[in-house]
Amino acid sequence: MAAYLIRRLLLMIPTILGIMLISFVIVQFAPGGPVERVLAQLQGQNTTMSRVTGGGGDLAGRGGTSQAGGGDSNSRYRGAQGLDPAFIKRLEQQFGFDKPAPERFLKMLWDYARFDFGKSYFRDVSVLQLIREKLPVSISLGLWMTLISYAISIPLGIRKAVRDGSPFDVWTSGIVIVGYAIPGFLFAILLIVLFAGGSFWQIFPLRGLTSEGWSQFPLWHKVTDYLWHITLPIIAMAIGAFATSTLLTKNSFLDEIRKQYVLTARMKGLSERQVLYGHVFRNAMLIVVAGFPGAFISAFFAGSLLIETIFSLDGLGLLSFESIVNRDYPVVFANLYIFSLLGLVVNLISDLTYSWIDPRIDFEARAA
């Protein structure tokens, strides 16, 4: 197992390099960028000023005008016409675009290897500080959603497997399929309409994880206020994951129940409960338990983006989306790097979990 672990850890290096290289190349060809964003803001301010002053406003102090009409250094950027080329060069230096792309990529890799992610282009704060500020919201959503969906889906999946083909299995399957088919964000909107003052009842709050002045509340009030705020977002997020893990649990148990060792255990006179929880449970739960870290990471980042937006929850998903829209590349690449690394580590943890639950699984022998 030690050789397998070392091999997997070493394979993470080229995988991370490939992910970052592909993303970096895509960004180079993507339209727009931080320089263009600043220029667009300046042109918008200039247009507004011109309307106020009758066309006499200028951008002096923000870049001035170019006597030559822009020059070659401005031709790469939309909206740069009429601006001083020296100002454009200062912008490029500020964002690091005065260096060739290969040099910028190698510098980014060296910095990221030391977990130095620099500062945000437009927020004047370090990227790590931004991530630390958003982390509690995403952890809350991911952890609660994963725990609740597993707490419901595992017992339900076992029950459906035991009563496969019964009316209970049929109507619960209908509910599960409907839940899986409904996108989480649509369910979130429905919950808001029904229970957050949309058109019917004002039971739950519409935004945030806590009320104003939460830090001054007594402990019991803090807990209840937090649970009050998180109820609707967690329900909206759990509906799809709950359906997936329920069917996964059921199918896993059905596969094990039909195997020969289960028939042998029944012939020995063991009760159904002893067969189910003494023999079947351990083998059937392999795929379910091993998938827990991946399910958590998925909910922790990607799964919460729309939910964070709808309920105004300032987490990592919303941060990444806003950074992509605003071309805040240090935040974009830092999030990509961190979560790619987390994904690779989680996959490794899942494999180790398989071996821990069932010692018969030997990845090292299989690789050989």
From TrEMBL:
Transmembrane feature ranges: 9-30, 137-158, 170-196, 226-249, 284-311, 331-350
All residue ranges annotated as the ABC transmembrane type-1 domain in the record: 135-350
Biased composition (Gly residues): 53-72
Keyword presence, Cell inner membrane: yes
SUPFAM superfamilies: MetI-like
UniProt record, GO biological process: microcin transport; transmembrane transport
Keywords: Cell inner membrane, Cell membrane, Membrane, Transmembrane, Transmembrane helix, Transport
Xref: InterPro entries: MetI-like (IPR000515), MetI-like_sf (IPR035906)
Primary localization: membrane
Gene3D superfamilies noted in UniProt: MetI-like
Positions of the UniProt region annotated as Disordered: 51-77
GO cellular component annotations of the record: plasma membrane
Its membrane topology: Multi-pass membrane protein
Localization (cell): Cell inner membrane; Cell membrane
Family listed: Belongs to the binding-protein-dependent transport system permease family.
Cited NCBIfam families: PRK15133.1
Name used for this protein in its record: Microcin ABC transporter permease
Organism: Methylobacterium platani
